[in-house]
Amino acid sequence: QVQLVESGGGLVQPGGSLRLSCAASGFRFSLYAMSWYRQAPGKERELVASISNAGSFTKYADSVKGRFTISRENTKNTVYLQMNSLKPEDMAVYYCTRGTYSYITESSDYWGQGTQVIVSS
Q: Strand 68-73 and strand 58-60: pairing?
């Protein structure tokens, strides 16, 4: 059974940082690209960042480029999203997803439950 469990969300001040983690199980983690999505009330779901199966390639939404870093440790079956210089517009529920393929696409077949990021003073 594929499981994706996000953690690390919480309250942070504008300009602050958070690191989200996604613990994966139930599949061969190293074979799949992984992504982070986010969605806030009143906003469209946004693909934030993706990483290929071996971590060789990454892709970021323009809105987070230069501030967020996606990474993975395949030995730990974990993907991370380091979020720096957080802005109020980053406030959303962040979801970890499994890509359909080993390479980066905009297709995901499994989603975690999400972790909430609140950016506020």
A: unpaired
